[in-house]
Amino acid sequence: MNTPRLKKFDARERESSACSETKSSSSSPARHRLGAAAVTEARIPTGGSYRFLNPHFLPQHLQPNRPIQRKITTRFSPPPRSLPQPPPSRSTSGMDKDGDSSDTALHKQEWARTQDVLRSRLVLQDDFEWSLPSTSSDSDKSDAASGELKYIGGVDISFLKEDPSTACASVVVLDAQTLEIVHEESDIVRMQVPYIPGFLAFREAPILLGLLEKMKTNAQHFYPQLLMVDGNGLLHPRGFGLACHLGVLADLPTIGVGKNLHHVDGLNQSEVRRQLEAKENCNKEYISLTGQSGTTWGAAMRSCPGSSKPIYISVGHRISLDSAIGVVKYCCKYRVPEPTRQADIRSKVYLQQHQILQQ
Question: Which among 112, 192, 191, 226 is positioned nearest to 351, based on CA atoms?
Fold first, then answer.
């Protein structure tokens, strides 16, 4: 055991210490040893470091001239759980096999169980009574079915570059006939949950659900019948992305539209693009995304002519893949469908305005 370095005392402290040790030595060797132990072992925290004490500054019951037959050591109890803890060490002793800290690993286990419970409520077929509006120019407006889709919602969250924990969440509602915005809700939020791959919904879904609940109070008339999410549904490493999570909890038909492809069941972005550009597929608007297991996870769609970058469509909740593809195709003026494109634009504008007001 290494002897700890003692703090230097001034001349008067050394003289007092020497006198005390002389008196202790003359009375009892045991008391002398206790005095020496008190100097080297008694310590208190001062700003994260330790200061070693002169015997004369010890409490009365630890003074060298008091006969105590046991060795004195000082132990410090850990802080209560309610106090903020320091960040975990980067040493491998606190990591699991995936390199996650113990706290992160516990969160992932708990979230995985929650996903499994919500997945049991997932509906992968059409579960709605509306139909897409007719696009024929000669259709009689008066004959339009009352069951036509009226309002399509789009959601997105934008983040401040200077401070990624500050974000703006937006919900926009479009008239399904004209694809014009009829209502929007935005809110500046402070992100409390860290991003963990595979569990994005636990970071973003509560915020988006809050905006939808706000709409029920402030604009019930414009509440969407269908929700389009800037993210994935079934096309997800755990088969339950943000679109599924949000759709189940909001109980809305939901479509996931991603701009990038997750590595799922052997699928990868470069191979999908190669297939979409292959000669036999060059005239197709979309191709199915079927993994090595034979499962169809979604579709890669060339949403506008000449686009080299497809979008990736997947079922969220209460809609089939064929219907999801039809709705996305109907909503595309550019590469990204209007509901999520407008939600992205509005969230960024709102965030910029907020930043200007804070300056």
Answer: 191
Q: What is the pLDDT along the chain (359 residues), one digit of tens a residue?
A: 454 444 444 444 444 444 444 444 444 444 444 444 444 444 444 444 434 444 454 555 555 554 444 443 433 344 443 333 434 444 444 555 555 677 788 889 999 999 999 999 999 999 999 998 875 544 444 444 568 999 999 999 999 988 889 999 999 999 999 999 999 999 999 998 988 989 999 999 999 999 999 999 999 999 999 999 999 999 999 999 999 999 999 999 999 999 999 889 999 999 998 888 888 888 889 999 999 999 999 999 998 876 778 999 999 999 999 999 999 999 999 999 999 999 999 999 999 998 888 87
Cβ contacts of 115 within 8 Å, gap of 6 or more = 199, 201, 238, 240, 245
Q: Cβ of 119: how many Cβ atoms within 10 Å? A: 15
Q: Nearest 5°: phi and psi at 329?
A: -60, -40
| Pair 79, 88: CB distance under 8 Å | no
Question: CA angle, 288 as apex, 273 and 267 as ends, to 5°?
Answer: 55
The residues, ordered by sequence, that sit 6+ positions from 347 with a Cβ below 8 Å of its Cβ are 156, 157, 158, 168, 169, 170, 186
Residues 6+ apart with CB under 8 A from 6: 39, 40, 52
DSSP state of 344: H
* Span between the terminal Cα atoms of the chain, in Å: 56
- HSE of 224 in the Cβ direction (CA atoms, 13 Å)? 33
pTM of the entire predicted model = 0.71
- b (16+ CB within 10 A) / e for 274-292: eebeeeeeeeeebbebeee
Can you list the pairs that 194-199 forms with residues at least 24 positions away whose Cβ atoms lie under 8 Å?
Answer: 196/104, 196/107, 196/108, 196/111, 197/237, 198/108, 198/236, 198/237, 198/238, 199/107, 199/108, 199/111, 199/115
Q: What are the φ/ψ torsions at residue 330 (nearest 5 degrees)?
A: -65, -35
Tokens of 169: 């969440």
